[in-house]
């Protein structure tokens, strides 16, 4: 009888936990892949290209609400620098908010690179390209279907920025569903080295945004400690 | 004798130096110049401030509504800039601004009515947004045959702005639906004007051109080119490419019926948005021929006489060449491989000895075969615009219908033949090794990767090759 009550208490706690998980908003999936062969010491510096927060009117991701998103931009950029530092990762943000040489470099070199990375992600078979998918899953996969490749000519930027690593940390949010992704490319190898995509069942507001940014860098840091 | 020998040596070195400098000149001619100007105000602007300034100069909408319209348009443009869709401080934008200067006398550097943004899209398109931003796709410059045609299209687009067509439509839309923000937002996205507005912009544009140093008769030809009616400027001979003496891809799959079906389907596709970059110029212009006729009538009514000295096309030809190279580069960089292959084949037709064109054929072909073998080519093919181009429809069918093995075999055989013909091209060898990986397996691929590693130890693909050999 004593054992039974112990088990039933455990079961009740488990059921309570599961029900709270299913009723609240949260991550509907988390995909993560990498092909890093090197240790963290190799990740000397990462150039983060204009972290973008985009808000859409609905889950079709067609009609964009720029006013909502514009309130987040500055905070989003500063969160990336803050939380990457907290996790001892050297992320240098280049964006329209940068100044001087950094601003010029952003427009001249990094914008075309961002465009190339985004377009190459389009041909990849990943949940971002299957927005209608509603499946509840949480899994870690080793490889995405297509190994995304970037043009070898982009390797010119490695010398200029003293690092082969360039990243995108973007959020696309809408009332029904949101996507958060973090990508690191190695321009020497012309491919994506690290990729994290998360699906979130709800609108990403300030607190969720900070949580995602922190969580993402925490995961990246943990990954190197494996 | 020794003296003659010295003269001969000097002469030879002179010839060689001249030859090399011509080569160097040709190489630099293919590079788009980017001005190192630190003035980035065209790309980095205060949306609120700019919207407020624009509101003062319009009379169609109430102030708060007008503010929202301008702010929304500027935010969208800013978003496109921040997605890397435009060139920054490039020489072609400056050239286009100089053409607009000649078309519209009201525009000058002080008034700054228009600003040109050059988009990386290879779809021949241009449009003018509510704030006077003229967005020109690089594909339009690559397609036009002379400066007057380009000027004609630009004059048409700025006429929409001068006649306030967008603002008038926003007003009509708000009055109709009374649904506020949603109404002008969706209108802005579709970028469609009514038929009457199109004819009005044609007439106004032709009047502007008639008073400028450009040939207004060329506008009709520009319409023909943009709507894909001039096949000489857009089509390529695919059968010649896919039928080699070594390997014959089954080109019978390009049945006339299927090609016709695809072209028809493409013409019906109407939902093209500004942000996806799939917008097509004149999509609201089903009556291309009628508009050509109307243009002729307008020119006769004003007793138009072609100027004796038409603008100089030397400058245009240089930018047209640059645009054609940039189009292919952009298609590849932006992973639009089907369009990239089509444009690269066309580039190789125009410049048969150009190495860049050959390499771009190889790179795009490899990626199409790779995506096909990974089973994820369908989305890419569906997103590619056929745009009335028969050979684009044929190319799409080839990649849809040909089995993986056949494509892999074609790719490998094609690259092997290229490598045997020229064993100095590192791109060909790299992709030959990658194609072997798809078609014949990893061990065969390693032979070619090793060959690359020994022949090109400092090559652009060496990091990838070394990793594959590990």
Distance between the termini of chain B: 60 Å
Helix content of chain A: 25-40%
Q: Can you write the helix and strand succession of chain A as a string?
A: HEEEHHEHHEEEH
**Cα distance, first to last residue of chain A?**
43 Å
Q: What's the rounded overall pLDDT mean of chain B?
A: 82
For the CA atoms, what is the radius of gyration of chain B? Answer: 25 Å
Total DSSP E strands of chain A: 7
Radius of gyration of chain A: 19 Å
- Strand order of the biggest β-sheet of chain B: 1-3-2
Number of helices of chain A: 6
| Average pLDDT score of chain A | 75
Beta-strand percentage range of chain B: under 5%
Query: Major β-sheet of chain A, in short?
Result: 7 strands, mixed
**Major interchain interface with per-chain residue totals:** A-B, 40 and 45 residues
List the helices and strands and how they pair.
The complex is a heterodimer of chains A (226) and B (470).
Chain A: H1 2-23, E1 27-34, E2 46-49, E3 53-55, H2 66-70, H3 73-86, E4 91-94, H4 100-122, H5 156-161, E5 165-173, E6 178-186, E7 191-200, H6 206-224
Parallel strand pairs in A: 2-4, 2-5, 3-5
Antiparallel strand pairs in A: 1-7, 5-6, 6-7
Helix pairs in contact in A: 3-6
Chain B: H1 2-29, H2 47-56, H3 63-82, H4 91-103, E1 115-119, E2 126-128, E3 133-137, H5 138-143, H6 147-162, H7 165-177, H8 181-190, H9 195-210, H10 218-226, H11 238-242, H12 256-268, H13 288-301, H14 313-333, H15 337-350, H16 355-374, H17 377-383, H18 390-401, H19 404-421, H20 426-439, H21 442-455, H22 462-469
Parallel strand pairs in B: 1-3
Antiparallel strand pairs in B: 2-3
Helix pairs in contact in B: 2-3, 3-8, 6-9, 6-10, 7-8, 9-13, 10-13, 12-18, 14-15, 14-16, 15-16, 16-19, 16-20, 19-20, 20-21, 21-22
């Amino acid at each position: 009888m004593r054992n039974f009550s112990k088990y039933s208490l455990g079961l009740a706690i488990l059921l309570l936990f599961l029900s709270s998980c299913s009723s609240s908003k949260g991550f509907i999936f988390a995909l993560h892949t990498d092909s890093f062969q090197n240790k963290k010491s190799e990740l000397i510096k990462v150039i983060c290209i204009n972290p973008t927060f985009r808000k859409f009117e609905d889950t079709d991701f067609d009609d964009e609400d720029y006013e909502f998103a514009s309130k987040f931009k500055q905070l989003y950029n500063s969160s990336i620098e803050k939380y990457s530092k907290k996790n001892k990762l050297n992320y240098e943000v280049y964006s329209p908010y940068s100044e001087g040489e950094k601003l010029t470099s952003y427009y001249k070199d990094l914008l075309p690179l961002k465009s190339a990375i985004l377009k190459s992600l389009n041909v990849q078979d990943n949940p971002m390209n299957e927005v209608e998918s509603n499946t509840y899953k949480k899994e870690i996969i080793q490889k995405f279907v297509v190994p995304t490749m970037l043009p070898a000519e982009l390797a010119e930027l490695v010398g200029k920025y003293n690092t082969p690593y360039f990243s995108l940390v973007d959020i696309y949010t809408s009332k029904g569903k949101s996507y958060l992704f973090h990508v690191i490319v190695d321009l020497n190898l012309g491919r994506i080295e690290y990729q994290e995509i998360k699906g979130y069942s709800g609108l990403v507001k300030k607190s969720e945004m900070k949580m995602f940014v922190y969580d993402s860098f925490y995961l990246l840091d943990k990954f190197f400690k494996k | 004798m020794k003296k003659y020998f010295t003269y001969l040596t000097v002469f030879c070195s002179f010839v060689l130096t001249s030859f090399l400098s011509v080569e160097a000149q040709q190489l630099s001619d293919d590079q788009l110049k980017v001005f190192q100007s630190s003035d980035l105000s065209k790309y980095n602007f205060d949306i609120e401030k700019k919207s407020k300034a624009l509101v003062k100069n319009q009379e169609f909408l109430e102030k708060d509504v007008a503010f929202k319209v301008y702010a929304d348009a500027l935010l969208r443009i800013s978003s496109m800039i921040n997605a890397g869709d435009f060139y920054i401080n490039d020489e072609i934008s400056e050239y286009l601004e100089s053409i607009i200067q000649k078309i519209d006398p009201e525009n000058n550097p002080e008034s700054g009515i228009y600003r040109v943004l050059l988009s990386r899209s290879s779809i021949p398109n241009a449009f003018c947004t509510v704030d006077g931003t003229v967005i020109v796709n690089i594909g339009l410059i690559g397609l036009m045959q002379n400066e007057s045609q380009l000027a004609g299209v630009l004059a048409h687009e700025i006429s929409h702005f001068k006649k306030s067509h967008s603002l008038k439509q926003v007003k009509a839309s708000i009055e109709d639906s009374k649904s506020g923000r949603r109404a002008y937002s969706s209108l802005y996205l579709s970028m469609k004007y009514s038929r009457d507005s199109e004819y009005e912009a044609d007439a106004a544009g032709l009047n502007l051109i008639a008073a400028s140093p450009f040939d207004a008769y060329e506008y009709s030809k520009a319409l023909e080119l943009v709507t894909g009616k001039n096949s000489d400027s857009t089509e390529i001979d695919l059968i010649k490419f896919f039928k080699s003496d070594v390997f014959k891809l089954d080109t019978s799959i390009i049945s006339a019926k299927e090609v016709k079906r695809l072209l028809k389907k493409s013409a019906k596709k109407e939902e093209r948005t500004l942000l996806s970059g799939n917008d097509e110029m004149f999509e609201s212009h089903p009556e291309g021929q009628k508009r050509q006729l109307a243009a002729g009538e307008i020119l006769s009514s004003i007793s138009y006489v072609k100027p004796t000295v038409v603008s100089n096309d030397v400058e245009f030809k240089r930018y047209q060449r640059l645009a054609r190279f940039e189009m292919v580069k952009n298609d590849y960089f932006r992973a639009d491989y089907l369009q990239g292959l089509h444009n690269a084949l066309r580039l190789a037709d125009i410049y048969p000895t150009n190495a860049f064109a050959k390499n771009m054929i190889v790179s795009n072909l490899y990626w199409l075969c790779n995506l096909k073998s990974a089973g994820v080519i369908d989305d890419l093919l569906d997103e590619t615009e056929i745009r009335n181009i028969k050979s684009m429809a044929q190319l799409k069918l080839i990649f849809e219908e040909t089995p993986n093995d056949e494509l892999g075999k074609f790719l490998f055989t094609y690259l092997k033949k290229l490598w045997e013909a020229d064993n100095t091209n590192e791109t060909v060898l790299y992709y030959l090794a990658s194609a072997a990986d798809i078609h014949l397996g990893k061990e065969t691929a390693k032979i070619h990767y090793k060959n690359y590693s020994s022949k090109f130890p400092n090559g652009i693909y060496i990091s990838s090759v070394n990793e594959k050999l590990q």
